[in-house]
């Protein structure tokens, strides 16, 4: 693996393209619907994302995928402000005891989750289709609606 760094973003994160034997891993991830194309990126990534969307693969198989920036807003995860360039913030996600183990043998219901993020994680990782009562690929609609209201 090699990294071809293109600099840093405004938060101090390294921007790079990852290669494995001349294969652009960043592009492969976008093509397979496993990553979002960065908005200010080369058109090849945007084209790959559009193709993945059209094929409804990876995250595009979800009825309403949540963009990373939106997810961070929902979760209240922030970055240093642009005038705070010397500050490095880290965030360690906090999950309830239900989520820390992610035991798919447990048969959980929507009442077992404290928020939509936990329900969605369990739903996708454990293929818990029973959490999706109306078949829209969104588990625990009441938690989803609650999350959307608090944006």
pLDDT averaged residue by residue: 79
Helix content percent band:
25-40%
What oligomeric assembly is this protein in? single chain
Give the tally of structural domains: 2
How many H/I helices?
A: 6
Main beta sheet: strand number and arrangement? 3 strands, antiparallel
Low-confidence stretches: 80-101
What is the CATH topology descriptor of the largest domain? OB fold (Dihydrolipoamide Acetyltransferase, E2P)
Quick gist of this model?
This protein has 151 residues and is an alpha+beta fold. It contains six helices and three strands.
Report on this model:
By secondary structure, this protein is α+β, with helices and mostly antiparallel strands. It contains six helices and three strands, in the order βββαααααα. The chain folds into two domains: 2-61, Beta Barrel (OB fold (Dihydrolipoamide Acetyltransferase, E2P)), CATH 2.40.50; 99-149, no CATH class. The protein has a three-stranded antiparallel β-sheet. Strand 1 (2-8) and strand 2 form a beta hairpin. The radius of gyration is 18 Å and the shape is elongated. Mean pLDDT is 79; it is low at 80-101.
What's the SSE blueprint?
Layout: E1 2-8, E2 14-20, E3 23-24, H1 25-31, H2 43-55, H3 68-75, H4 97-101, H5 116-126, H6 141-149
Which characteristics define this entry?
alpha+beta; OB fold (Dihydrolipoamide Acetyltransferase, E2P); 2 domains; 11% strand; elongated; Excalibur_Ca-bd_domain; Thermonucl_AS; hydrolase
